[in-house]
Automatic annotation (TrEMBL):
Active site, per annotation: 284 (proton acceptor)
Entries under InterPro entries matching the protein: ABC1_dom, Kinase-like_dom_sf, Prot_kinase_dom, UbiB, UbiB_bact, UbiB_kinase
Official protein name in the record: Probable protein kinase UbiB
GO biological process, one term: regulation of ubiquinone biosynthetic process
HAMAP family, A to Z: UbiB
Transmembrane segments: 488-505
Uppermost EC category: transferase
Length: 506
């Protein structure tokens, strides 16, 4: 089977001239001349990016998904290819409805008619991994309208075969392409495989949706569908059906009385809230996954890809954004090195000069005309010259920011992203280094302090009671001095803890 699949890939690649795209970078040039000699039977007049997109569509859902992922790696892909591959969103034909019904029966051990009071066999959405059908639960289960997401049949075996072939192709690229080692195609394939396997487990996606819904409980900005856990398996996910207008239908939104300017600002606010408050963000926010409720709130859908950020990541981002708008390029360079993503031996002055060359021309334009996403992208490209390792979660963030920014300016061309985002950045920095940060740290450490402090006298007593050794005498004296100081602070800490827990945070 793998041999036939390999032959099909080779045939499609040759038909669309992908061999020419690779061989033209082969150092010796012999393979490029061979590819040119074979052009007599094929039409290669279309741009290379379009031919690549068509080839991926011809190879099927897994390769379409790979193209979607590649379109987000703008730190690696040429701009024309990244832009063309972005067109692969929502271009996957659905699988047969009979197969969908079979998958439901396999998941629940009973036919769809017994699981659902109503089930529409015609899918309302289809993607590379799964498709969605509308249904209604039986009255005994609440009678709710639901959306049923069903994994494509036999995906795991297809994925493993295709990933193995992609890895082999990536290995050839590294050997034949002059830029192969720098672009690390095998690492890109491995990263793609990780995300793909995660998306194959719909229980994981359901958990992502549940977490995001909990983060935005009672939100006036965002609605996340409720998950019906009793009907979720690794291959079928059932969630609340959402009613709204696709965000791309701006004319209908205007006709419904939605303020597009406020809607665009709300989108930015939602994004920065996810990033800097929660460190957990929806990483696939293209227009196909966003609807607008009649009351003007966003509706988020499709939670297969989410991003997470550590406190270190958030600190890096906040410092870079704030330093950039202060034109403090030295601080931007230092933040890269301090985070460990740029080598320690990197010269700050050279890195600073490169960043200045990227950023300084931007300030000749109004802030509302500045693209955050493109700034981050150009910083990534500049960083590559200094061997900076771009973290996958930040690439996902940059891709999501580009989506949100493009969407926001489609709704309101006058959107000032900085004006909307600045309060969140400043608030977050205040919470990290100001008095709010001190209070938060005390709250986080309180359980540890409450458990550890009472043990100190016993530990000191054990040390004092044991026979002293000459080489331990300095440590013993230091421990006794520490205990005396600790006794002095115990009362202070107890008072602080009492104050903290006696009043609500903020």
């Amino acid at each position: 089977m793998r041999l036939f699949r390999l032959l099909k890939i080779a045939t499609v690649a040759s038909r669309f001239g992908l061999d020419e795209m690779v061989f033209e970078h082969e150092p010796s040039g012999r393979l490029a001349r061979l590819a040119n000699a074979l052009q007599f039977w094929r039409n290669l007049s279309a741009p290379r990016a379009e031919r690549l997109r068509l080839a991926l569509e011809a190879l099927g859902p897994i390769f379409v998904k790979f193209g979607q992922v590649l379109s987000t790696r703008r730190d690696l892909m040429p701009t024309d290819i990244a832009d063309e591959l972005a067109k692969l969103q929502d271009r996957v034909p659905p699988f047969d409805s009979a197969l969908a019904l079979q998958e439901i029966e396999k998941a629940y051990g009973r036919p769809a008619s017994e699981v659902f009071a109503e089930f529409n066999p015609v899918p309302v959405a289809s993607a590379s991994i799964a498709q969605v059908h509308f249904a209604r639960l039986h009255e005994r289960d609440g009678g709710h309208e639901v959306a049923v997401k069903i994994l494509r049949p036999n995906m795991l075996s297809v994925i493993e075969h295709d990933l193995a072939l992609m890895d082999s192709g990536a290995m050839l690229l590294e050997k034949l392409w002059s830029d192969g080692k720098r672009l690390k195609p095998r690492e890109v394939v491995a990263e793609f495989g990780k995300y793909l396997r995660d998306e194959l487990d719909l229980m994981r996606e359901a958990a992502n949706a549940s977490q995001l819904r909990r983060n935005f409980t009672d939100s006036k900005l965002l609605i996340v569908p409720e998950i019906h856990w009793d009907f979720c398996t690794s291959t079928v996910m059932v969630m609340e059906r959402m009613h709204g207008t696709p965000i791309s239908q701006t004319d209908k939104l205007r006709a419904d009385g939605i303020d597009l300017s406020k809607l665009s600002e709300a989108g930015v606010e939602i994004f920065f809230t996810q990033v800097f408050r929660d460190g957990f963000f929806h990483a696939d926010m293209h227009p196909g996954n966003i609807f607008v409720h009649a009351d003007g709130r966003y509706i988020a859908l499709d939670f297969g890809i989410v991003g997470t950020l550590t406190d270190s990541d958030k600190n890096y981002l906040a410092q870079n954004f704030l330093a950039f708008f202060r034109r403090d390029y030295k601080r931007v360079a230092e933040a890269h090195i301090e985070s460990g993503w740029a080598p320690k031996e990197t010269r700050v002055d050279e890195f600073e000069a490169a960043i200045r060359a990227v950023c300084e021309p931007i300030f000749d334009r109004p802030l509302k005309d500045i693209s955050f996403g493109k700034i981050l992208l150009r910083l990534f490209q500049t960083s590559r010259r200094f061997n900076v390792e771009i973290q996958p979660q930040l690439v996902m963030l940059q891709k999501t920011l580009l989506n949100i920014e493009g969407l926001g300016r489609q709704l309101d061309p006058e959107l000032d992203l900085w004006k909307t985002a600045k309060p969140f950045l400043e608030r977050w920095m205040s919470e990290q280094v100001g008095w709010r940060g001190l209070v938060r740290t005390f709250k986080q450490e309180a359980p540890y302090l409450a458990r550890s402090i009472p043990q100190l006298p016993r530990l000191v007593h054990q040390v004092l009671a044991s026979p002293p050794k000459a080489d331990l005498q300095p440590q013993l004296e230091q421990l006794i001095a520490t205990q005396r100081r600790q006794n002095l602070w115990l009362a202070v800490i107890a008072i602080l803890l009492a104050i903290l827990f006696a009043r609500p945070y903020f």
